[in-house]
Write a structure and sequence with these properties.
Number of helices: 9
Shape: globular
Strand content: 15-25%
CATH superfamily of one domain: P-loop containing nucleotide triphosphate hydrolases
Strand order of the largest sheet: 6-7-8-3-9-10
Helix content: 25-40%
Structural class: alpha/beta
Largest sheet: 6 strands, mixed
Distance between the termini: 51 Å
Number of strands: 10
CATH class of one domain: Alpha Beta
Order of helices and strands: EEEHEEHEHHHHEHEHEEH
């Protein structure tokens, strides 16, 4: 059905020992929609992504991709689902032993079985889409600046033409200008692919730019969600404190003892 969400999460629970991280979380990501999850450090944003990707097993709840339940799938079935995904990791997570173009082509070669000869032109095309010339493809990741590494990571995320792209803190470690460049590239690439996107970030400038809808995660649940234009009038004290970066408010930093 056309209105079936690309991702549908219901009642998701995940704990580590006595620490409850996700506590009955509900969230949808629609077709062609960009959803950004905001929330403080340690609120479970990365844990949620890992549950969707199949890297962690939740204790309860449901995760559906295109209407298919993905919790409890066999390894082979899980691999089929994961072929729909692209991922931009927080640190870009490039393979130091591979050249830049080989990093971009990694999914094309390992998951789709393309030869290096067939994969290289696609990799160079994706580098061009993120504003990097072909000669950068011959460099090693160690020769790149932080902003270039993020661009290469984005090129890799879109190389397999994914239906859903995950962005893990896409502007972390970048200056404000390069952050804005990356945000623009994310918007352009997601639109070009017609993909759905799920991002996690602390960066409100990034969230405002790349999101259609923003959801706030707090104490294991989505406590507010709405169109990006509504966030400044959310009426939620937790959201207001977070987006304005105020020390005082209902959110208290947990200081380890």
């Amino acid at each position: 059905m056309a209105d079936t969400p690309k991702i549908e999460i219901r009642g998701l629970k995940k704990r580590f020992g006595s620490k409850v991280v996700l506590d009955g979380l509900d969230l949808d990501v629609g077709n062609g929609e960009s959803v950004v999850i905001i929330g403080g450090s340690g609120t479970g944003k990365s844990v949620l992504l890992k549950c969707i990707l199949g890297l962690l097993d939740p204790e309860a709840g449901s995760i559906k991709v295109d209407g298919q339940e993905v919790i409890g799938l066999s390894t082979r079935e899980r691999e089929q689902v994961n072929r729909k995904f692209g991922m931009l990791f927080q640190s870009a997570a490039l393979f130091d032993s591979l050249s830049v173009w080989e990093n971009v082509a990694f999914g094309l070669i390992s998951a789709q079985g393309k030869s290096k000869k067939d994969a290289k032109p696609i990799a160079l095309e994706k580098l061009a889409q993120v504003g990097l010339p072909a000669q950068v493809g011959e460099l090693q990741p160690s020769e790149l600046s932080g902003g270039m590494r993020k661009r290469v990571g984005l090129a890799r995320a879109i190389a397999t033409q994914p239906e859903i792209i995950f962005f893990d803190e896409p502007t972390t470690g970048l200056d404000p200008i390069m952050s804005d460049v990356i945000n623009d590239l994310i918007v352009d690439c997601v639109h070009r692919l017609g993909a759905s996107a799920l991002s996690i970030t602390h960066d409100m400038a990034s969230a405002r730019k790349i999101a259609h809808r923003i959801a706030m995660l707090y104490q294991g649940k989505i406590i507010w969600q709405g169109p990006v234009d509504d966030i400044d009038k959310s009426g939620n004290a937790h959201v207001d404190q977070f987006i304005h970066g105020r020390a005082e408010g209902p959110i208290r930093m947990q200081i380890p003892v």
